[in-house]
From TrEMBL:
It is found in: Membrane. The keyword Transmembrane helix applies. It is a multi-pass membrane protein. This is MFS transporter. The chain crosses the membrane at residues 26-45, 65-84, 93-112, 118-139, 151-173, 179-201, 213-230, 236-257, 278-303, 315-332, 339-361, 373-394, 414-433, 439-460. Keywords: Membrane, Transmembrane, Transmembrane helix, Transport. One of its GO terms (molecular function) is transmembrane transporter activity.
Length: 468
């Protein structure tokens, strides 16, 4: 009976009808739990960096690798997992990602030093890439085509809520227990999501082409060396080392492009970057998430070192940003149905830039209200950018290249966040006393650059329209 029911669900999803109720609700719950854990882990780690640095007896600059290695692993493996999922099925790759993420979370909780924690975080990032890189594609098989917008909205809400509660959860856990519990909390939820995924996630259509392992190797090496070079450069490593890593990244990118030339579905979707609207949208995302990475890694140190707040207070002070993102995202999404995306995202990133600059000029004796309204302003700007820009990336790609577009959505976000996090370490090295403010200033500059890129889409749209 169970096998017959599973066969019926599989056929329904293959026909584009989605899952029937209540199976649909259980399936979306498993996806939401996986996405939530991956999103929460970044927010939790950012908030707890000062506490982990102190308890692991390491410097703030070195502790940033706890965040960087997670993002490096995700960037290096996200596109290969997306390509592999088209062949093996999105269901299998998602379940594998959940399992690896859960086991790696347990390893993080048991880590006894910075090196062991960084290694465990690497594998956690690999599992997170398998989850985050294909969750949008899974939604296409879970929901009927007529309800896909609702599914994407639910997914965006889960991410926003996860970032919103992440700092609060981190602060609560740190007030009761030590930092290993920040990772141990993933284990029971990961097990539950794994069980639900195996039971309810549907099978999806599989591509006929074979997976090219060499292309995946080139991709992982190219992106991994790129992020590593950025991180090493931020830590002022030897010039020879940084140049070697950057040169290696360039070499593997060249090999990757040559290897996938003429492929009907290239792993690195260069065909989509020939579309100006797509390229500018991806560039806007990289700059904006770079600003977010600079802010969210530096703000805990700013609040605790410069403003004298406790770790628990820091978590609550970070919350207004994420809460306002959750409030503004659906509003901005509805506005994007009526107004140009370039204008909406341009206004949002400009607001974000102003908010970060206001954080810099905040007095040392600033009240909680003074901090919170500035954080809320940053959240308004970021939330106003996110949904319209996501819509622009997906809508500027043809339907048959939706997988490539989805992969670039996550890749752009992670490259921006990883670059921002690495640059925080560079700011600390330049000035141990004012590194936080330098990072926030750089974040404001990134947001301003994102605003320029976003508004540029208006001119591209006009030019394209005029040539038709």
């Amino acid at each position: 009976m169970l096998k017959q029911s599973a066969d019926v669900r599989a056929q329904a999803t293959l026909d584009g009808e989605g899952l029937p109720l209540p199976e649909r609700n259980w399936a979306i719950l498993s996806v939401a739990m996986g996405v939530s854990m991956s999103s929460l882990d970044t927010a939790i780690a950012n908030t707890a960096l000062p506490a982990m640095a102190a308890q692991l007896h390491t410097t703030p600059a070195d502790s940033v690798w706890i965040v960087n290695i997670y993002q490096l692993a995700m960037v290096a493996t996200l596109l290969p997992f997306a390509a592999l999922a088209e062949i093996l099925s999105f269901r299998r790759v998602f379940i594998f990602g959940l399992l690896l993420f859960t086991l790696a979370s347990a390893a993080c909780a048991l880590a006894w030093s910075l090196p062991t924690l960084v290694i465990a975080r690497f594998f956690q990032g690999v599992g997170g890439a398998a989850v985050m890189g294909i969750n949008t594609a899974l939604l296409r098989s879970i929901y009927p085509s007529s309800m896909l917008g609702r599914g994407l909205g639910t997914n965006a809400l889960v991410v926003a809520v996860s970032f919103a509660v992440g700092p609060t959860i981190a602060s609560t856990i740190l007030s009761l227990w030590s930092w290993p519990w920040l990772f141990a909390i993933n284990v029971p939820f990961g097990i539950a999501a794994f069980i639900l995924a195996r039971r309810f996630l549907p099978e999806t259509k599989r591509a006929t082409h074979r997976f090219d392992a060499l292309t995946a190797l080139y991709n992982g090496a190219a992106f991994g060396l790129l992020i590593l070079a950025i991180g090493e450069g931020a830590h002022l490593a030897g010039t020879g080392t940084v140049l070697l890593e950057a040169g290696g990244a360039l070499l593997f990118f060249i090999l990757l492009l040559r290897r996938q030339k003429g492929h009907q579905a290239p792993m690195l979707p260069v065909d989509l970057f020939r579309r100006p609207q797509f390229s500018l949208s991806a560039l806007t995302a990289v700059f904006t998430f770079g600003a977010q990475g600079l802010a969210f890694v530096s703000l805990p140190f700013y609040f605790e070192s410069a403003l004298g707040r406790s770790a628990v207070e820091t978590g609550f002070l970070l919350t207004p940003w994420a809460v306002l993102v959750g409030i503004m995202a659906p509003i901005a999404g509805r506005l994007s149905d009526r107004y140009p995306v370039g204008i909406l995202a341009g206004i949002g990133t400009a607001i974000l830039s102003v908010g970060l600059m206001l954080m810099i000029v905040m007095p040392v004796d600033a009240s909680t209200f003074d901090i919170c309204w500035r954080m809320a302003l940053c959240g308004v700007g970021f939330g106003f950018f996110q949904a319209p820009n996501l819509r622009s990336i997906l809508s500027s790609a043809p339907p048959e290249r939706g997988g490539g577009a989805s992969g670039i959505v996550a890749t752009s976000r992670l490259i921006g966040q990883a670059s921002g996090s690495a640059l925080v370490a560079f700011c600390f090295i330049i000035s141990a006393l004012h590194g936080e403010k330098l990072a926030l200033g750089l974040g404001a500059a990134f947001a301003a650059a994102a605003s320029i890129a976003s508004f540029s889409r208006m001119f591209v749209t006009k030019n394209v329209t005029s040539t038709k």
